[in-house]
Amino acid sequence: MKYKVFYKEDLSHEIELDNQQIKIDGKETTIDLVKLLDNKFHILENHKSYNLEIIHADYNLKRFSIKVNNNIYDLNLQNELDALLDKMGMSAAADDKMDSVKAPMPGLVLDILVEPGQAVNKGDNLLILEAMKMENIIKASGTGIVKSIQVKKKDAVEKNQLLIEME
Fold this sequence. Notes:
By secondary structure, this protein is mostly beta strands. The protein folds into two domains: 2-87, Glycoprotein, Type 4 Pilin; 100-166, CATH 2.40.50.100. The chain has one helix at residues 80-87, and strands at residues 2-7, 11-18, 21-24, 27-29, 31-37, 40-45, 48-58, 63-68, 71-79, 100-102, 107-112, 119-120, 125-131, 134-139, 144-149, 156-157, 162-166. A hairpin with a 3-residue loop joins β1 (2-7) and β2 (11-18). The longest helix is centred in the middle third of the chain and has 8 residues, at 80-87.
């Protein structure tokens, strides 16, 4: 299975997984991967050590935020079918208009990353919600303009509580 991993706006790598073999941009590589916790891993690649933590995963949008040795990367995955649909102008990830943003879980608002009147696109970071001692980046599920923000920093919120109203 081949994937294209996009990061830092215009940079990407092609990853190919085949029978325990991993190729990055066509070059075979040997990676020793050890799962430490559900979202934490240790990777040894060419005698280099990496600590990897999955901060946020949206499997539907194929967007992920990971921390590698204390550097945070926002990734977007694209498989062969996604690439073909993009090439044909039929992107499966077409932007939808977003109505509002609700809390996916109870938690504490750590930071608000947008302001009223700001235009947002699908995948943009909106706010940071702490839940169960983990920081969760809440991202836009579509496009829109921030109409109002219904919470403040350090507010405790319940699941499905309105956080941001969009126009």
